[in-house]
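Q: What does the assembled structure look like for these inputs?
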Amino acid sequence: MASNEEILAGLADIVNEETGLEADAVQLDKSFTDDLDIDSISMMTIVVNAEEKFDVKIPDEEVKNLKTVGDAVNYIAGAQA
Amino acid sequence: MTATLNQKPTNPGSRILGLGAFRGDVVVTNEDVCEWIDSSDEWIRQRTGIVTRRRASADVSLLDMAEGAAREALERAGIEAGQLGAVIVSTVTFPYATPSAAAALAERIGATPAPAFDISAACAGYCYGIAQGDSLVRSGTADYVLVIGAEKLSDVIDNHERTISFLLGDGAGAVVLGPSETPGVSPSVWGSDGAKWDTIGMTHSMLDLRDIAVAAENDPEGTALVAETEAKLWPTLRQDGQTVFRWAVWSMAKVAKQALEDAGITSEDLSAFIPHQANMRIIDEMVKQLKLPDTVAVGRDIADMGNTSAASIPLAMHRLLEEQPELSGGLALQIGFGAGLVFGAQVVRLP
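A:
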């Protein structure tokens, strides 16, 4: 099981791979759409890669609730528990 | 005394003998689209890869497009319409529930009395048609089968909505399948997922439209009608893009891999990959998931054509063969997926 710090670092890698954004830019309070400029299609790619990396399920209807990086970290941490 | 029934002699294989295409005559640019929805050329290109889409004029019908594609396919196959043992039209935009587009088309091209029927499998329709045609030829039920994907999607869109309409175009693609000593169509991997029935589809049913029409007749002033029908009168297409994208890429990559496995080949054996032209981002992501070698030509007709549903794969195949004639005779992996949800995939030998 990954700690919240590890989840954040893992997510940052995934975001970097999908968008080319520096991993440092991926902080808990950042909004995926407003701050990181990630569109809905890229978001889905990030979600599927996160599912694989952290061995969790993130249903489609949950994706729209993941507004910030922190939301995603919390969801993944909860889903792992 | 028990009578024995005759069976037709079977054919060892089927293959595509000829291919035809018809593209909508009107070029609709992203600038045109931005007159209808609040967007930009850059936004549309980035999210869809679409630069223009081709649509048919009001006086060009679905049957006109299907006929154009069919005649070219027959000519290239060197087959007379009278030799056809079946005519299959895959479409979701023929404006009559019955009779079928296929029966009208068979008569137009001179294929009567060939069996003729339509398939409703949206963007998987062409691959469903190939599955059917391949079975008909190999079983000996028909020697030559015309399979057509034809759509006039511009008849069922609302240009002012932004989930799907701006992606769509009009066109038709046709192939003639015939007997072959060696297999030219691999086993079809096809299926459905009705749990996602409402992720792509019409805003409302034809019965709703009938009820609105009845209400309008009883309401000559039109007040009740306006109050009652916030929805558009004419049903149009919508989709849940994010859910569809996820399904299209990750579930369909598995289907595509299965099709290669069932064909007994690997991606190294492919000359081309021709997925349904839904969105360039889906195509790019599928190429990545399938780890296709650089030597495989990828159908990317969507940039100029838009998404033409059942017509998109044969249209993309037609373009690849025009631009790279050396692909002829090579193997192509084709996969269609869409409203239903439904999917179908095969490996075919290119004509």
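The interface with chain A takes residues 46-47, 240-243, 245-246, 249-250, 279, 281, 285 of chain B (CB under 8 Å).
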